[in-house]
Amino acid sequence: MTPEQKLQFMTAAMNEGQRALPACRPNPPVGCVAVREGQIIASGFTLPPGQHHAEASVLAQLAGDVSGVSLFVTLEPCSFVGRTPSCAHTIVEQGIEHVYVGLIDPHSRNQGRGIAVLEEAGVKVETGILKAKLNTVLGPYLITNE
Ligand SMILES: [Zn+2]
């Protein structure tokens, strides 16, 4: 994955996230794309509360076929079970090997724990991709607690 590709795919995930508004509120408008062999094969965004988060939406579309798939997600996957299952755990269970993350989630129940869940399971994680742009576009929607 070249630096240019990383920016390209995270930009696609960011644009996908914009489609979540306003129905996703109060959850943040996260976007996610799945990439295989340099092509986006699935994309998703935060659905209304109680429905799939962006990552879960994409994983559902992949239907278990994750060989060679990398995920690009604009926000750290959630590590805790809230209204929906934990995305970080779902990513691990599905066998995704590589996750590219935009922003670390400032939520008091996440704050790096989602990244830790992935890394402890052996998933390769790279954070901070498109960070400045995402801070502008996604940052205002992030919540620090409930
Ligand atoms: Zn989640």
Written overview of the protein:
By secondary structure, the protein is an alpha/beta fold. The protein has a single domain, classed as Cytidine Deaminase, domain 2 (3-Layer(aba) Sandwich). Helix content is about 35%, strand content about 20%. A 5-stranded mixed sheet has the order 2-1-3-4-5, with helices on both faces. Strand 3, helix 3 and strand 4 form a beta-alpha-beta unit. Helix 3 (about 85-95) runs parallel beside helix 4 (about 115-120). The protein is globular. The chain starts with a helix and ends in a 9-residue tail after the last helix. It binds zinc ion. Zinc ion binds next to loops.
Task: Describe the SSE topology.
Elements: H1 3-18, E1 31-36, E2 39-45, H2 54-62, E3 69-75, H3 87-94, E4 98-103, H4 113-120, E5 124-126, H5 131-137
Parallel strand pairs: 3-4, 4-5
Antiparallel strand pairs: 1-2, 1-3
Helix pairs in contact: 3-4
Quickly describe the structure.
The protein is α/β, with parallel strands linked by helices.
